[in-house]
Specification:
The structure is a single chain. Helices cover 59% and strands 7% of the residues. It is α+β, with helices and mostly antiparallel strands. The protein has a four-stranded antiparallel beta sheet, covered by helices on one side. Strand 3 and strand 4 form a beta hairpin. Helix 1 runs antiparallel to helix 2.
């Protein structure tokens, strides 16, 4: 079923569709994508990027989408984020932009929360070890009251990228909220050590 433009591909073999057409394939065969490493130093880095995509083009699309959003031109912002996802589904910024837009455009209604979750599910199929996406989904789950799931996502994010300060801070805030002060202090300390 099509939800917010995303199609559930759980029954399909490693293919993610967007708006009803294949956005990309997660097939890791050499013929499916170039051998350019996306983020060579990150432990969660995908090993392949789509052919002929220059990172500067994705940077510009994300920048222009944020500018359009700031100018309240939401239609243009969504169009640019969707284009960025089609061009490079391994870059989490556009996925985050789409999910946040969905939540903000309907003020956190149950419908918008489900659509944002669908966006995150599609994003996680594209890049399952991305700490930015894990932390973003963790924030959504925490806001919805699913604290155990949020903690699980924060722990995964810090496991895949121990230097991701935002995940340590989010995890620390949740630990504090759960009245585990020592654990919260440890998380904040890790965040400071990793990003002074």
């Amino acid at each position: 079923a099509d939800t917010a433009g995303f199609v559930d591909t759980s029954g399909m073999s490693k293919a993610v569709t967007y708006r009803g057409f294949p956005a990309f394939s997660t097939d890791s065969s050499p013929s499916s994508s170039s051998s350019v490493t996306a983020y060579p130093d990150a432990p969660w880095a995908p090993t392949k990027r789509p052919d002929r995509v220059l990172p500067i083009n994705i940077d510009l699309l994300n920048y222009r989408a944020r500018v359009a959003q700031g100018r309240k031109n939401y239609t243009e912002a969504v169009r640019l984020w969707e284009l960025a996802v089609k061009m490079d589904p391994l870059d989490g910024r556009a996925w985050l932009g789409l999910a946040r837009h969905e939540l903000n455009s309907h003020r956190g209604s149950a419908r918008s929360v489900e659509k944002a979750r669908e966006i995150f599910k599609a994003a996680m199929r594209a890049c399952p070890f991305n700490p930015y996406l894990l932390q973003g989904l963790g924030v959504l789950e925490e806001q919805q009251g699913d604290l155990p799931r949020a903690m699980e996502l924060y722990k995964e994010a810090t496991k895949y990228d121990p230097s991701h300060a935002a995940s340590w801070i989010a995890r620390g805030r949740l630990e504090k909220r759960l009245r585990r002060v020592d654990a919260a202090r440890d998380c904040y300390q890790r965040a400071v050590e990793d990003d002074p």
